[in-house]
Specification:
about 250 residues; alpha/beta; Rossmann fold; about 40% helix; globular
Length: about 250
């Protein structure tokens, strides 16, 4: 059931990679609090449409838009879809990534480039298009999704870890440049979260170290942090990495 009279009523969000897992939970969470949402997937239109329908059935507003955000046409088209459907873009959640897993010496150059392109090129292109609308309103939120592997390392994921590490640098740079326009930019870095894993991700590696809170996290716990960063209470938070990992890494 959509909540009423929230600080985010009337805001518009684009959530990349939101057909499942953390992206889906985030799209639904924001919609529950009055945000109109553009649900995005690169090719699974059935899954994206299903998320938009769930939001609609709960009383929210959402449209699905299929786009490859690693291309200028795809990223610009995604932001244009939000403007066409809801009149603008206030919140950009850059969640899309490739959960690749392969020994370092077996990674091809094409695989390297593609794994970096989705989170890095995608965030660059979507943010470049979205900030035009945010600047006009002098208010905006850009939230990128990092990962625990950036900080503790993970075997067989050199390309994925590098991509997430690059997001931290990009987000910090944007935080400084966009602050005068009323736009905050932060990273949410999940720990080990219970999600559906694509075939490319391979089997879930065993936990070498257990978090202090001895369980996997839930996608809704990540969506909750993303939601918080969109609220007025978070106006003074920018350029930060918010670790949500049960105490596996303390961010020092």
């Amino acid at each position: 059931m959509t909540n009423t009279e929230t600080p985010l009523d009337g805001k518009v969000a684009v959530v990349t990679g939101s057909a499942r897992n953390i992206g889906r939970a985030t799209a639904k969470r924001l919609a529950d609090y009055g945000v109109s949402v553009v649900v995005n997937a690169v090719q699974d239109s059935e899954a994206a449409d299903a998320v938009a329908h769930e939001i609609f059935e709960a009383g929210g507003r959402a449209v699905a838009h299929i786009a490859d955000i690693t291309t200028e046409d795809g990223a610009n088209g995604l932001i244009d879809a939000a403007v066409k459907a809801f009149g603008g873009v206030d919140i950009l959640v850059c969640n899309a990534s490739i959960r690749a897993q392969k020994p370092f010496q077996e990674i091809t150059l094409d695989e390297w480039h593609r794994t970096l392109a989705v989170p890095l090129d995608g965030t660059f292109l979507c943010a470049r298009a979205a900030t035009t609308h945010m600047k006009a309103k002098r208010w905006g939120r850009i939230i990128t999704l990092g990962g625990i592997s950036t900080y503790i390392g993970t075997a067989n994921r050199a390309h994925a870890v590098t991509a997430k590490a690059g997001l931290v640098g990009l987000t910090r740079a944007l935080a400084v440049e966009l602050a005068p326009h009323g736009i905050t930019c932060n990273v949410v870095s999940p720990g080990h979260i219970e999600t559906e894993r694509p075939a490319s991700a391979g089997a879930r590696p065993p936990l070498v170290q257990k978090p202090a809170i001895d369980r996997f996290g839930d996608v809704n716990e990540i969506a909750g942090m993303i939601h918080y960063l969109c609220l007025p209470e978070a106006n003074y938070i920018t350029g930060q990495t918010m670790h949500v990992n049960g105490g596996l890494y303390f961010g020092v």
